[in-house]
Automatic annotation (TrEMBL), chains A, B:
<dbReference type="Pfam" id="PF02798">
    <property type="entry name" value="GST_N"/>
</dbReference>
<dbReference type="InterPro" id="IPR004045">
    <property type="entry name" value="Glutathione_S-Trfase_N"/>
</dbReference>
<feature type="domain" description="GST N-terminal">
    <location>
        <begin position="3"/>
        <end position="80"/>
    </location>
</feature>
<dbReference type="GO" id="GO:0004364">
    <property type="term" value="F:glutathione transferase activity"/>
</dbReference>
<dbReference type="InterPro" id="IPR050213">
    <property type="entry name" value="GST_superfamily"/>
</dbReference>
<dbReference type="Pfam" id="PF14497">
    <property type="entry name" value="GST_C_3"/>
</dbReference>
<dbReference type="GO" id="GO:0006749">
    <property type="term" value="P:glutathione metabolic process"/>
</dbReference>
<dbReference type="InterPro" id="IPR036282">
    <property type="entry name" value="Glutathione-S-Trfase_C_sf"/>
</dbReference>
<dbReference type="InterPro" id="IPR036249">
    <property type="entry name" value="Thioredoxin-like_sf"/>
</dbReference>
<protein>
    <recommendedName>
        <fullName>glutathione transferase</fullName>
        <ecNumber>2.5.1.18</ecNumber>
    </recommendedName>
</protein>
<dbReference type="InterPro" id="IPR010987">
    <property type="entry name" value="Glutathione-S-Trfase_C-like"/>
</dbReference>
<keyword id="KW-0808">Transferase</keyword>
<dbReference type="InterPro" id="IPR004046">
    <property type="entry name" value="GST_C"/>
</dbReference>
<feature type="domain" description="GST C-terminal">
    <location>
        <begin position="82"/>
        <end position="204"/>
    </location>
</feature>
<dbReference type="InterPro" id="IPR040079">
    <property type="entry name" value="Glutathione_S-Trfase"/>
</dbReference>
<comment type="similarity">
    <text>Belongs to the GST superfamily. Sigma family.</text>
</comment>
Length: 204, 204
């Protein structure tokens, strides 16, 4: 049996849910360590760059959620078959990250007046702009984001929807049938469905 | 002769300079299209996700600067030799991107009072925090960011320094000898040195 790996993050889905989905998909048993924000300051200094998630795997300490997902994707046979397919996945994933960053920028804005302004831009402009294009991309790719087949990019997207939906307070894929269907397809994979049924419930 | 590729970006170094460094390193002739901000609105709709850079290469249109650099890194023999080395490069590159995003968040802040506050945090906290750790990482990696050898991650860093130095208005590596030496080493590679000597001069 492979040694258990250890994922450290906050008590959120957030940036770690794609990692948890991938570990679950691969039936890789993992310790799911969740820090409350007040526990964070002493932990911060023990991380490579003052951030979470950190994944301890194969005797190594990994950071940077996207790099972790790409690494797991390769281990699980969910990467591109050639450099171009890999690039297609990377482009899709970084585009979803751009969207996530815009949502986060609104969500974590401390000034209420500025937050309201950001909210308007995010919901009226940013979300429709990205989602229309992503929806079309999934249509063109036979129901997946890239390479015409299921890759770690699709799992990344389906998992990050939980955070993005929590921020939006609605299912962001609801008006985008190809995205909704992709999300559903991934979340109904037996190992991922099982993870979703047993994971701790959080809003984002 | 390989067909010329075409890089579209703004009249800046910014996110495209790592691509320009990599193309130059690989002696891949490229058309260096630079849009002024006032030319941008009609161009925006022709890009995959409303953003630049876009690289036309091998008959395909690529977007997302990091994905482009990773793709070029593989083509040029500058990628990891195995999944772990590739992950090390990815972690370093995404860490540098986190730092770059913090600098950009300050630099492009339109409200002058908020900008001054962000400036203080960026220069007193963020920059030293990242640079100390990156400097140590380069020391531990035999003078490179990852995998104990020169990779596309080093070229990405050395090129992005131009943008980050422009934002900071000083050489951010000046107090970090391992970073300064890495930057110098990359910029003295003949093909990159030649690119630097002939490129258009911009501040960022």
């Amino acid at each position: 049996m492979a040694p258990k790996c250890k994922l450290s993050y906050f008590a959120l889905m957030g940036l770690s849910e794609p990692i948890r989905f991938l570990l679950s998909y691969g039936k890789m048993d993992f310790e799911d360590i969740r820090y409350e924000f007040e526990q964070w300051p002493p932990v911060k200094t023990s991380t490579p760059y003052g951030k979470l998630p950190v994944l301890e795997i194969d005797g190594k300490k990994m950071h940077q959620s996207t790099a972790i997902c790409r690494y797991l994707g390769k281990k699980l046979g969910l990467a591109g078959e050639n450099d171009w397919e890999s690039a297609e996945i990377d482009m899709a994933v970084d585009t979803i990250t751009d969207l996530r960053l815009k949502l986060s920028d609104y969500y974590w804005e401390p000034d209420e007046a500025i937050k309201q302004k950001k909210k308007e831009t995010v919901f009226k402009e940013t979300l429709p702009f990205y989602l229309e294009r992503l929806n079309e991309q999934v249509k063109e790719n036979g129901g997946y984001l890239a390479a015409g087949k299921m890759t770690w990019g699709d799992i990344f997207f389906a998992a990050l929807c939980d955070y993005m939906n929590g921020v939006a307070q609605f299912d962001i894929t609801k008006d985008y049938p190809n995205l909704a269907s992709l999300k559903k397809k991934i979340r109904e994979l037996p190992a991922i469905k099982e993870w979703i049924s047993k994971r701790p419930v959080t809003n984002i």
